[in-house]
Structure formats: structure tokens, C-alpha cells
Amino acid sequence: MKRIMVFMTIFIFGGMGVVSALDLPGSQLELEIQSLKTSGTDYIKSFSIQDDWDEFDIDAEDDGSIYDYEYKSPKKAFLYSLLIPGWGQKYAGSSFWKPLLFFGAEVGSWVGYFSYHNDGEKLTDEYEGFADEHWIEGDRNATSDDGENYWDWVRHPDYNVTPREHLPETRNQQYYEMIGKYDEFAGGWDDFWEINPGYDYENELVIKMTPNRIYYNDLRGKANDKLDIANKFIIVSMANHLIAAFDAALAANRFNKGNSGESWLSVNTELKKYSATDDIPIVKFTWHFK
């Protein structure tokens, strides 16, 4: 309020001085301008003497209706929603649907993840159990080729198999992938010998897919699809954290601007010293882009 009073005083005195000076001769005009500068400066300085405050320094406590509000830290809002989406929005005073939206998306993404991940793990256990029962590796260090298993198929002279892929020592994820994916491991399926009798690995163009191998690959494909969807829910959750964090920081900024009384156009005044004895009051207009 004091700033407005000072500005209005300068504006009124300046306007009156300019109007009256229009009818004065040149020398008298200079005297009137000097008198106007001196009186304006003395009037402005009188505030610092009477109220003990610096020129044009406003005490925010004098206008509680504008400046009396709880400041919201954008950094805190950002971190809150980075940890728990929606928490920063609640802190920043956003409408109730925003915290609910971000928190609901977080809960939904984790529900989706666990649901699809559990289904994928169940199918994984199922196809691995099926392979353990129907894909017979045999003894990789034996010399005999009498049995119907993978290593006997590799060693059997009638099948002429030269493995290009090396089977892992343990039954890990790669092991279960290879036995269903590559034809050179087809001889391990217990129904291969019936459907592909006397198969020449080097000369035959296509190995006939057996029912057990088809069923196994179908199970494995479904399991992988479930696990891939589960991983996508993790990505959704991460994106939700980041979007919520930035939105909360912006919400905190909007809250502070909306309650600080800051407008797009602000007016500031200051004293500009043009000489050792003369101080001229300057009025600055500032336009804030939001």
C-alpha cells in the first residue's frame, strides 16, 4: 500500500508540475523542475525517517491478505511424487482428482505387473516341467548310440548330425530356449524318433515338428508374452513417477504464484542518483511472462 501511495504522490505532483510549467518562461521552467525534483525526493525520503524502512522496501507483514500464505517447495513436491506418485500433488494443494489419478496409476501398474508376472512364472514352470519329461538329453559323455535321446541321436551314424550350437551344462533359461527353438536339438524330443525315422540332418531340408515340440513352444511363447507385458507395467510405473514428479513441482509453483499476489504487471520505484546532490525517483514497469 505504501508503494502505491508513493507512486500516486509522484504521479500527481509530477502531473501538476508539468501542467503549470507549460505557461512559464524558460528560466522559470528550470527553477520549477529543480523544485519538483527536490520536493519529490524529500517526500520519498521522509518515509525512511518516520517508519524506519529503506526506500521502497515493502514489509510483507503489513499486507497479510496478500502475503500471508504457506509456501510450497517445488523441490519437496518433486521428491514426494518421485517416491509416491500423487503425494507431491497433495502437498502442493492440487485438486483431489490429481493425487488420486497418479496414485491410482501406480497401484494399477503394480497390480498388472504382479498379475502378469505370476501367470508368466506359472507357465514357465509348466513348460520347463514338460521339457524335463519329454525332451531327453541322455549322457553327453557316453559312446553308445542305442537309446532314443538327444546325444544318441547326435552320435548315431544314420542321422549324420553335426551340432552347431553348444548346449549349456545346466538347465538354465538358454537351455530351455535352445531345445525348442533349434532343429539340431529336435532329436531330444521323445516323439521325434517316431515322426522322423532315419532323418538325414545334412540332406533333409525340413525337420517335421512333433506334437510335443509344438506344444512346448506354444507354452513357452505364452509364458514369454506374459512376462513381457509384466515388464511393460514396470515401464509404466517409472513413467508415472517422473510425470507425477514434474507435475507436482509445477503445481507447487502455481500455488505460490496464485497466493503471493504476484501479477503479470508489476510496478517498482527506486531513486536514481544523477549527481552528487540530485536524486530522481524512477518508476519501472515489468511484464511477467507465465
Structure description:
The protein is mostly helical and 290 residues long. The chain has a domain at 75-251. It has ten helices and two strands, in the order H-H-H-H-H-H-H-H-H-H-E-E. Strands 1-2 form a two-stranded antiparallel sheet. Helix 1 (2-21) packs antiparallel against helix 2, helix 4 (74-83) packs antiparallel against helix 10 and helix 6 runs antiparallel to helix 10. The longest helix has 50 residues, at 211-260. The chain is rod-shaped, with a radius of gyration of 42 Å. The two termini are 25 Å apart.
Highlighted features:
10 helices, 290 residues, mainly alpha
List strands and helices in order, with pairings.
Elements: H1 2-21, H2 26-51, H3 64-67, H4 74-83, H5 87-91, H6 97-134, H7 150-155, H8 173-181, H9 192-195, H10 211-260, E1 265-273, E2 279-287
Antiparallel strand pairs: 1-2
Short structural description:
This protein has helices spanning 2-21, 26-51, 64-67, 74-83, 87-91, 97-134, 150-155, 173-181, 192-195, 211-260; strands at residues 265-273, 279-287. The chain is rod-shaped, with a radius of gyration of 42 Å.
**In percent, how helical is the residue content?**
55-70%
How many DSSP H or I helices? 10
Average residue pLDDT: 75
Most strands sheet: 2 strands, antiparallel
- The class by helix and strand makeup works out as mainly alpha
Order of helices and strands: HHHHHHHHHHEE
User: What percentage of the residues does DSSP assign to strands (E)?
Assistant: 5-15%
DSSP summary, beta strand count: 2
Q: Which value, in Å, is the CA radius of gyration?
A: 42 Å
Strand order of the largest sheet: 1-2
State the low-pLDDT regions, or none: 1-26, 47-67
Overall morphology: rod-shaped
Q: What is the CA-CA span between the terminal residues?
A: 25 Å
